[in-house]
Specification:
The structure holds two protein chains of two kinds.
Chain A (H helix, E strand, L loop, with lengths): L2 E5 L2 E3 L5 E8 L8 E6 L5 E7 L6 E3 L7 E6 L4 E6 L8 E8 L8 E4 L3 E5 L2
Parallel strand pairs in A: 2-11
Antiparallel strand pairs in A: 1-3, 3-8, 4-5, 4-9, 5-6, 7-8, 9-10, 9-11
Chain B lengths: L8 E4 L5 E6 L8 E6 L6 E4 L13 E6 L2 E6 L8 E9 L2 E4 L3 E5 L1
Parallel strand pairs in B: 1-9
Antiparallel strand pairs in B: 2-6, 3-4, 3-7, 5-6, 7-8, 7-9
Classes of the chains: A mainly beta, B mainly beta.
Chain lengths: ~120, ~110
């Protein structure tokens, strides 16, 4: 069974850092791009970042560019989102999503359940 | 940056056809996807590449995309289709979501 399991969320003060993890199983991890999508309280979906199958292409939303980085570890079938200089507006449920393609075209056929990040003093 | 615009809400009676629109500049030149999200659940992919349905998605869900407008059509809408719906497009190296449409079935 295909699974994406996010972890690493929590309560953090503004300006601090947090690293989210997405553990994948049930499919050939190396064949697909993986993305992070977030949803603020009572708000819509916002794409955050994506990484291609071989890490050759990465992308970020303007709202996080320069503060967040994304990486993947083939040996651990995992994708990571390093979030620095966190702001209250980064408060959201962060989903990991599998792309249908290797380079990443934005068609997300599987989603995790999300991990909650709260940025507050 | 690229933007997608959806109506905040759409209402439909059970058994009728619901159409949810998504507008963006030259949207017809891009591939559009549609997602359904019910309260407390993760989004589900309904339509990708404008018109394709993943396996397991009922045939009553269909999509189209031309000009500046993409549409999600739900034929024979059921009460269980009540949810939030989001369109999505790929723009250069980024993914854009519409603001979402709440579908009410009553």
């Amino acid at each position: 069974e295909l699974q994406l399991v996010e972890s690493g969320g929590g309560l953090v003060q503004p300006g601090r850092s947090l690293r989210l993890s997405c553990a994948a199983s049930g499919f050939t991890f190396d064949d697909f791009a993986i993305h992070w999508v977030r949803q603020g309280p009572g708000k819509g979906l916002e794409w955050v970042s994506g990484i291609s199958w071989n890490s050759g292409h990465v992308g970020f939303a303007d709202s996080v560019k320069g503060r967040f980085t994304i990486s993947r570890d083939t040996a651990k079938n995992s994708v990571y989102l390093q979030m620095n200089s966190l702001r209250p507006e980064d408060t959201a449920l962060y989903y990991c999503a599998k792309d249908m393609s290797n380079e990443g075209t934005g068609d997300f056929d599987y989603w995790g359940r999300g991990t909650l990040v709260t940025v507050s003093s | 940056s690229y933007e997608l615009t959806q109506p905040p809400s759409v209402s439909v009676s059970p058994g009728q056809t619901a159409i949810i629109t998504c507008s963006g500049g030259k949207l017809g030149n891009k591939y559009v996807g549609w997602y359904q999200q019910k309260p407390g659940q993760s989004p589900v992919l309904l339509i990708y590449q404008d018109t394709k349905r993943p396996s397991g998605i009922p045939e009553r869900f269909s999509g189209s995309n031309s000009g500046n407008i993409a549409s999600l059509t739900i034929t024979g809408t059921q009460v269980l289709d009540e949810a939030d719906y989001y369109c999505q497009a790929w723009d250069s190296v980024t993914v854009v979501f519409g603001g979402g449409t709440k579908l009410t079935v009553l």
